[in-house]
Amino acid sequence: MSNNRLSDKTKGIICILLSALCFSGMSSFINLSGDIPTAQKVFFRNLVALFFASFMLIKKREKFRPVRGTFPFHILRASAGLLGVFGNFYATTHMAHTADAAMLNKMSPFFTLIFSAIFLKEKVKPKQALAIIGAFAGAMFVIKPTFGNVELAPSLAGFFGGLCAGAAYTCVRHMGNKGENGRFTVFFFSAFSVAVTAPYLIFDYHPMTSKQLVYLLLVGLCAAGGQFTITAAYTFAPSREISVYDYSNIIFTAIEGYLFLGHQVPDVLSLVGYVIIILMAVWMFFYNKKESPLKKA
Known about the structure:
By secondary structure, the protein is mostly helical. It contains twelve helices and no strands. α6 packs antiparallel against α12 and α8 packs antiparallel against α9.
């Protein structure tokens, strides 16, 4: 009998593609917002998400409290996620090419695999480990770790942001397994981030033009969409089954960078790094598919 219901994996893929599009838009608006302190950008990014998450919880008549036993993981997810956002925003603002910053942030699925193996006991097999090593090698082409690289600091910040995002998504996966509501997860992270960054605005607020304010609100709108869909994606399926689709973000970001941010074109070394990282992700995806075929719905 035919079954028109989507499998959890298909739902995860759709969600992760939507999140990639949202986060690419967020990167573009971060750049368009201009020379505003990173903490101020992070505040507005999460303020909008907080309103959306609160609205969704109220609309669905869901409780504003975590599932029993998940509170420590919410704190860990929020802390790692906020550090990841700071790293990503700093890299996006200070690197010449937004696609470079996006690619470094897309190391997060590899870190998710590592953290899932350590903390969730999800096995990482030898070929998967080789793919992770290959991805790290590719990241070095993007980072270009030499003292002559004027973008070394933002590159390392972007790499660190990817590491923190991987840790955050591992917590999301774990809480999803415990039955935590994805909407509450977004709410908690947004509320935590607003609370942490609000003091900065109180004591060191930088005035903005109306255009900059609009761009930051759009950053928040895109971030909210990205957060909801990425949270749903990793709740529907393990990272090993869907993470490769997250690399569509690089395509979206590169296109937007070329069209809207001064015809940005990454250099040859960065492109080599892109190819290596994406090839490792694709190889890992097909290896996982071969080793663990999904049952037909």
